[in-house]
Design brief:
By secondary structure, this protein is α+β, with helices and mostly antiparallel strands. The protein has helices at about 1-10, 10-20, 30-45, 50-65, 70-90, 90-110, 115-130, 135-145, 155-165, 170-180, 190-195, 250-255, 255-260, 265-275, 280-290, 295, 310-315, 320-340, 355-375, 390-405, 420-465, 465-475, 490-510, and strands at about 235, 240, 515-520, 530-540, 545-550, 555-565, 570, 580-585. The chain has 23 helices and 8 strands. The longest helix has about 45 residues, at about 420-465.
Length: about 600
């Protein structure tokens, strides 16, 4: 067993195999050894990512303890292993239930009385994590009395210290931390001055908690050995509201209800959300979200003036070669329709007629010209637009959130021209256009240009065909002015349905993500919009809601209600007529250090 314990931290698979071999005790009726190895195997499985299998083994070991089959010493070992595992996977419900069960056993089994104090300690901790501070204080005091003179009393003093700290009673907290340290729990100084007493102008917390986590507020950060922080914090620093953004598992888990459906380990969350550094719980919480507009969004609205410099930057993104590239993409649909066209032959039993390649080429060439002209007619100048730097604000806002940097200190008016924030938002605007302008051009072309070009292409086709084929084609087309049926709000709906799947998958693994919004009542690519999607709800019934931070709103959330069930997208919640949304390409960027506010 010492060998297996040595492998536990670095090589849980080897530890699991070793404990499995040590579990030979079951053949010889060694209940103590069997229960202990079951518990340790369970912890190793959790470390390996098999949380469900690990929890099952832990429960099996604890059942043996509850049945009175395990000797007092090994009952304590098993209980501690189970509670530590519950803390690791944030399964507070299971920890609470097993603690209550062991408390009852302690009352009925004299041999387990030494563990009543430890039960009280864990009960106090669980109550503290659930916010029942008064009840937790009573349990911690009882634990101190029950464990008086025993080394485990350090755990009880530590819980008292945490509760004092949470209530702002820093002198008592420091004394309790010192008492805990004297009995081997933590250091003799405890968090002490730096961590328990935030002074004027200080960042709360004085650094990451043990194991990596949120700096948090020293007056309200909760139980980092259990991986839990409060969902919100109104910390005071010298009588002022703290500018430190706190992150909590309560809000995070409410955003990720699928995680609450079963126990999950930190390692599983790290693999899914990829925090950097990997060991930092604070970074994990940032990646999991939620992005809360009132905390994380710029307070100023998107009201930037469009200068001649910015105008020049914009126009470069709709250069002739880019418009031609987008138009070529649009011609593919027309070419496919023409190539697949089969005209009924007026001669009985004769095969259907295909269009000659020369005619297809002639029509597609005209389509290319008309698409380019149609895109140009949409208006490729940003002058007179309302949004200014929507993409820059969406990109920059999420960049700062990912860094964990607060934005409230930037105020409610747009940054001064040529300031660090002004330049950064401008640079990120250019990044957003570089990554997404072709998509915007394509989608507005689909919505506003392609239906008209379909009518033109139909007329061109009719005029290009002569002889008997012309009569057969005219009979086939009849009064239909557009045989192509490409583009329009219906095609944008189909594309939006596909994009919705990509958006929801992205929001499952990210706190937020930029999306593009296409309006039916606005044709210019520069009058479309870029916002930050932050959450969604979708019951799979054809309707859904999308929570966004619209940079036109300041630091407020907005909810869009989407209906995918008709012939075109129906939406409520936006002031304009939304006909399409898509997941934008976004590459995170580290903001300059000058934007890190104190």
């Amino acid at each position: 067993m010492p060998v297996a314990l040595g492998f536990f931290e670095q090589d849980p698979a080897t530890a699991h195999a070793t404990f499995e071999r040590a579990g030979i005790g079951v053949r010889f009726g060694e209940v103590d050894l069997t229960a202990y190895c079951r518990a340790r195997q369970g912890r190793a499985l959790i470390r390996m990512g098999d949380t469900v299998g690990g929890v099952a083994l832990l429960d099996e070991a604890m059942v043996a303890v509850m049945a009175g089959e395990v000797s007092p010493i090994f009952a304590g070992f098993v209980y501690c292993a189970v509670i530590e595992a519950c803390q690791e996977i944030f399964d507070l419900r299971r920890a609470r239930e097993w603690t209550a069960a062991l408390t009852r056993c302690c009352d009925s089994q004299p041999g387990l009385v030494p563990y009543r104090g430890q039960c009280l300690v864990y009960r106090a901790e669980i109550m503290r994590l659930h916010g029942a501070w008064a009840e937790a204080a009573d349990e911690a005091q009882r634990a101190c009395e029950c464990l008086s003179g025993q080394p485990a009393v350090g755990m009880a003093f530590y819980q008292q210290a945490e509760l004092y700290r949470l209530r702002g009673e820093f002198a008592q907290a420091e004394l309790a931390y010192r008492q805990a340290g004297q009995w081997g729990r933590g250091t003799t100084t405890g968090p002490g001055d730096a961590a328990t007493r935030p002074g004027p102008g200080r960042r709360c917390g004085g650094g990451d908690p043990p194991g990596g986590g949120s700096p948090g507020c020293a007056a309200c950060a909760m139980g980092w050995h259990a991986g839990v922080t409060p969902s919100s914090c109104t910390a005071l620093s010298g009588g002022r509201e703290s500018t430190v953004r706190t992150y909590g598992f309560k809000a995070t888990m409410s955003r990720h209800e699928e995680i609450m459906a079963r126990p999950v380990s930190v390692r599983e969350l790290q693999r899914r959300f990829q925090p950097s550094p990997r060991s930092s719980t604070r970074e994990l919480l940032i990646r999991m979200g939620p992005f809360v507009a009132r905390e994380d969004a710029f307070r100023f609205e998107n009201d930037f003036p469009i200068t001649f410099e910015i105008l020049g930057d914009y126009v470069a993104f709709v250069a002739e070669e880019i418009v031609e590239e987008v138009a070529r993409q649009g011609t593919r649909g027309f070419s496919d329709v023409l190539a697949g066209l089969r005209i009924p032959n007026p001669i009985p039993f004769a095969p259907d007629i295909s269009l000659p390649n020369a005619i297809i080429g002639h029509v597609v060439e005209r389509v290319q010209v008309e698409l380019i002209a149609g895109i140009a007619d949409l208006g490729l100048s940003p002058m007179g637009t309302n949004y200014g730097r929507c993409g820059g604000m969406a990109f920059a806002g999420y960049d700062l959130y990912r860094q964990g940097w607060q934005v409230r200190g930037f105020g409610s008016t747009i940054p001064a021209e040529d300031s660090a924030l002004d330049k950064y938002i401008h640079d990120r605007l250019l990044d957003s256009l570089d990554l997404n302008v072709r998509r915007f051009l394509e989608w507005v072309m689909i919505l506003h240009v392609m239906p008209k070009v379909g009518e033109i292409a139909t007329a061109v086709l009719l005029s290009a065909v002569g002889g008997p084929l012309a009569a057969a084609l005219a009979l086939f087309i009849g009064s239909d002015v557009d045989i192509f049926k490409l583009g329009g709000p219906g095609e944008l709906l189909d594309r939006t349905k596909n994009e919705w799947q990509a958006i929801t998958r992205k929001l499952d693994d990210e706190a937020a993500w930029p999306i593009g919004v296409i309006y039916g009542n606005k044709k210019s690519p520069f009058k479309q919009h870029q916002v930050l999607a932050t959450d969604y709800e979708d019951a799979g019934l054809g309707t859904a809601t999308l929570t966004i931070w619209d940079n036109e709103d300041g630091a407020r959330d907005r909810t869009l209600t989407l209906d995918f069930r008709g012939d075109e997208l129906q939406e409520s919640g936006d002031d304009d007529i939304v006909k399409g949304i898509f997941l934008e390409a976004y590459a995170p960027k580290e903001p300059p250090e000058s934007l890190r506010l104190p």
